[in-house]
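User: Thanks for the earlier help. One more: TRAP-type C4-dicarboxylate transport system periplasmic component. Can you show the sequence and predicted structure together?

Assistant: Of course, both are below.
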Amino acid sequence: MGSANAKVIYLSYNGTSDPEKNAVHLFATNLKSIVEKESNNEIEIKLYPNSILGKEQERMVQVLHFPSLNIASFTGVSALFPEIFVNSIPFAFDDFESARSYYDHGQCWKKLKEEFYSRNNAHLLAAIEEGGFLAFTNNKQEIRTPSDLKGLKFRAMDKSQVALYESLGATGTPIPWTEVYMALKMGVADGQINPPMYIIMGGLYEVQKYLTLANITHSVQFLIGNDELLVNLSEKHKEVLYRAIEKANEINRRSVESLASKRIDYLKKRGLVVYKPNKDEMDLFRNATNESYISWLKKLDIDENWIELALQDMK
């Protein structure tokens, strides 16, 4: 609990306030406890889960103009900064280690943070791991290679997912998360992509039959910091905050990875037929999507240098 004279920081984000079901909330609660402890309660972080402070775009406007923190998805960030989509080039990472190395050591992520600040006067502080890798589910047939997706209808979260489906011969329709279960149940969509955490959270295993662990993209959300907030923190408090962000994100990473196999086992027990493509099949997915997804990125008026830089780091 913060003291009466504590510096109060507001942190808003999507999803339930259950840390077992929502890894973003796990990050937020750990960030709060670490910051408050290490600042001797000179800083208090107030949490606003479940989009209490507004939908994605509303919260992005808030964090640009109000001294606060916000955790945003690709959808939230992309309206201001479409370059963020270079981080979601499909089938780029084989495992957790390679995905984390991209954010921890890659030049692309470093330069994206600099450009985001230059353009928006706000800071991309961290890529927060929220659920591992996206996987295909559907209720029509087992997906082993790209040809198995042809003709299927998928729920899309954003424009990047529509582009992904089209490159694989499927179609994508944007459907809000709150409507996904009924859309799958009623046949509006045959399938969707999400990490196992979200498949469990949404009960999607009740209306899907097949799960393909194809490491489609690495599931992260982005911690945004208002510039005025950071400028007005003392050097000591700024150091506390930055160190706490690293610690909380490391806890998230360990949690997400440790729960990955348990969540897949849970889905197997609920009746999903699980398949993991082999190396040759994964190469087919990469080859089928790479060129068309990059063509889509270029249509967003993204400088090709960003794409090239991302691809170099992903190698």
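User: Great, one quick takeaway?

Assistant: The two ends are 45 Å apart (CA to CA).
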